[in-house]
Amino acid sequence: MNLRSFAVGMAAAATLGFVSCSSDSTSPDTNNNGGNNNTNTKNYMPFTKGSAWVYDDVALDTLTGERIPASLAQETDSITAVGTVAGRADAYTLQTFRAGLSTDTTIMAKTTNTFDQYIETPLVSSFTETQAEWRSIVDFTKDNLTVLNTDLANITLIETELQGFPVTVKASGKLIINTKKGGTATLTINGASVAAQEYIVETSIDGTLSGVVSFAGNPITLPAGFFNPFKATIIARYWFADNIGIVKYKEEPYSIGASWNATKLFSFDVPAGSQVQKVLGRERTLVRYTLAK
After folding, report:
1. Residue 14, H or E segment
2. In degrees rounded to 5, what are phi and psi of residue 11?
3. Which of 43, 47, 58 is nearest to 83 (CA)?
4. φ, ψ of residue 9 in degrees (nearest 5)
5. Which H or E element spans position 7?
6. Between these two residues, 105 and 29, which has the higher pLDDT value?
7. Residues contacting residue 246 through CB under 8 Å, at least 6 positions apart
8. pLDDT at residue 181, rounded to an integer
């Protein structure tokens, strides 16, 4: 059974928008008491058309979490347009360029207190069409924010084979994205020390898998309980610095696994089994930036 398509979908769910990096040391945030702050006095998103940030982008090993030097590449993020998108007149278009070619586009906006993105339903949009909408990814006045809490129903994840028969595997359950305030960090950017605040975005799906087997052209549902309960979690960390933006991004490596119990399928004895898909992490480090006036 191949979980690659689902792994790609989970990665897309975790990678929510504008990312950049740099790091030195991290310390606990003594103001993170689980409550809310009334106002945000930091300019964590100094977005202006023409502003650009250059990063070193590197993959992280699935076993050790260490950087993979051979994967290192440089990318440039640039705000190329400002205008109205889906009712938001303050929408910014950010494009990512690698070797001069555009590789990604992110639509985002900001308020005094929030960092917003115009996105489809994470994970679900990797497998079926969904309507994009504005979502607040971070609220700087809150120590905890529920970005999304929704039910999944029979989302097709995998088209594969079992004992030589075509199988469609579907997922149902709860998809939750939470953002919480983390620690503070002192970062070095272009030789200067800056203070940054961490926010942690956790994407998780907790539910069940089901399957339909095509036997002689006829769809037959696998018996209930064939698959064991399913759970996957991705953690992405963002660090914001005043008058710079997001100055660090790190997506932790993670694994996605499916397991099933021994059963009889038609006249075949299917042994218990499992498959795990390990997904590389990612880290981006800010090299330099230019803020347009």
Report:
1. helix 4-14
2. -65, -40
3. 47
4. -65, -40
5. helix 4-14
6. 105
7. 18, 19, 20, 44, 238, 239, 240
8. 96
In contact, 264 and 235? CB cutoff 8 Å: no
Give me 144's structure tokens: 């905890």
Rounded Cα–Cα distance for residues 221 and 214 (Å): 9
Quote the pLDDT of residue 31.
38
Q: Which helix (H) or strand (E) holds 212?
A: strand 192-215
**Tell me, what's the pLDDT at 50?**
95
Q: How far apart are CA 81 and CA 94, in angstroms?
A: 7
Cβ(21)–Cβ(45) under 8 Å?
Answer: no
Instruction: Please calculate the CA angle 50-93-115 and round it to the nearest 5 degrees.
Output: 105
Instruction: Tell me how long the chain is.
Output: 293
CB atoms within 10 A of CB 240: 21
pTM metric for this prediction:
0.83
- pLDDT tens digit sequence for 273-287: 887 888 999 999 888
Q: CB neighbours (10 Å) of residue 198?
A: 19
Which amino acid is present at 88? R
Residues 6+ apart with CB under 8 A from 111: none
Question: SS3 string of 102-149?
Answer: EEEEEEEEECCCEEEEEECCCCHHHCCCCCCEEEEEEECCECEEEEEE
Nearest to 75 by CA among 50, 58, 60, 92: 58
pLDDT digits (tens, 9 = 90+) for 91-123: 999 999 999 999 999 999 999 899 999 988 765
Tokens matching residue 81: 């347009």
